[in-house]
Amino acid sequence: MIIFEQMRALYIVIILAFCFSGRLLAQDNELLLARQYNANGEPQKALEIYQKLYKQNNENYYSVYINTLLNLKKFDEAESITKKLIRRHPDDHQYAIMLGNIYTQGGNMAKADAIYDDLIKSLPADQGEIAALASQFYQSANIDYAIKIFQQGRKLLKNDNMFTYELINLYRFKRDKISLTDEYLNFLPQNPNFINQAENAFSNVYEGSADYDMLKTALLRRIQKDPQQTIYADLLTWQYLQQKEFDLALNQALALSRRQNDDGNSIYDLCRTFIANEAYDEAIRGYEYIISKGKTSSLYIPSKIELINTKNLKVTSGKYLPEDLLGLEKDYNDLLTEFGRNSSTAFAMQKLANLQAFKLHKLKDAQKLLEETTRLNDIRPNLLADCKLDLGDIYLLNNQPWEATLLYSQVEKDFPATAVGQDALFRNAKMAYYTGDFTWAKGQLDVLKVATSQLIANDALNLLLLIQDNLAADSSGAALKVYARADLQIFAQNPEKAVMILDSIGKKFPNNALDDDIMMSKSRILIQQKDYAGAVPLLKKIVEEHPADLWADDAVFMLGDIYENRLNDKTTARNYYQKIITDYPGSLWINEARKRFRVLRGDKPDAS
């Protein structure tokens, strides 16, 4: 009898389980059907299912039911249901927040605000409950009241430093620049390690000079109130950098460094930023400040070297006055006098020789100095190779081609199948081209057009095509030899001589095939002289008159680069990059043009 009763009970449990699971399965099917109705634009049919499910299982289907009512603008029904749940669960604030949302969507903002304000007034002085309520407002997309909850929480807990991370994230999400700025400026003095995070946040939300001026005003006010707080001074320096007010950035950093009497590390790092932005004068002033601290400073020698390197960058970038050249030459000589001429200063000897050869045109002095450099003991192999290649160039400019080719060949032999060796081979080929030995040059260039160094391969291919195209038009190569002499003057940085030779070609050889080549050479001279506006018409003329010739795609890409980086016309730049993609799909510039086009179009970095 007992066994029978047990079996009967087990049977009932199994029957109930099957019924319950069957009921769940039916509810799941109905839920899928309701979703399908919504997807098909039939919300009324979906509502009927949600209403049925809500009555069967009450609160589990509240969210989908209430949202469907709101979509159908049945605000009274939604209000009635929600008020019942508020009475049933007075401590569960999600229903009060939803009731406020119902009033908001129904256009009754006053009622919604009254509900939200009551929640704030009844807020307990409990950190967990404050955070939970703010989170519920955030999840219902009510950012403003989430912020008010945290602000009220600070008052209740009597702690203005509470909920800083949460408020920063909310202000950033809302793009509330003023509040975000104030929050970070209150937070940073006790948490200076977060300065980079603050700078990134400002960069993401600030939209122009007005926003940075707002930051500057706030910082200056705080610095005046608390001059000993260095984090504000650091942030002010960053603000000046964003505005590209490099002189003011340096002045601010120097003032802070002097006040702290530090070793100048922050100035040394700042100088790198100046150099990256081509603010060479500010970098020079920064390095000079560090050097003025004396030889006992750990940064004395590095700053001395970087000072000269920066002056060299200023000269090679074209942003210099004639007297800067002589000043830089003196700096190199002073460095060599102070530290001697040895393997440790060989880099300075090399740079001084290049300055003398290509800027001061003191070819004999440059040759003598590099010959001395290549005889030094213990010089690094790669640096020795670079010095030999540069010395070969100077031999070429000094009309000593035989000595030049010996050095090029020596480096090629010492560094087989490397970028250095290929560079040596290319210089040998160019020397043959400059001196009119086009047959030998073609042989070398034919090998180099598949070089592992893409830059050398591209340059070799262009020079090979230049020679082939013009010899096909004139087998004697008479006009090409004159053009090669002009090219040599461009290499020697004698632009006036180069232009005179280029202008003579049309007069001596009226039917030459070098028209686009001459325009490209003149364009490059103008670009070398920073006359970008002057280069544009020549490059456009190449594109218009020689769209299928050697330099057409180069001219298109160069126009894009000039408009993007020099003339600040992003729209025109994008059009030229697009022209490479559509008109010159086989161009060597295709990948770079496609990448730049996408950036200017506003694509994300991972866009395909």
From TrEMBL:
Taxonomic superkingdom: Bacteria
Signal peptide: none
Swiss-Prot/TrEMBL keywords: Repeat, TPR repeat
Record protein name field: Tetratricopeptide repeat-containing protein
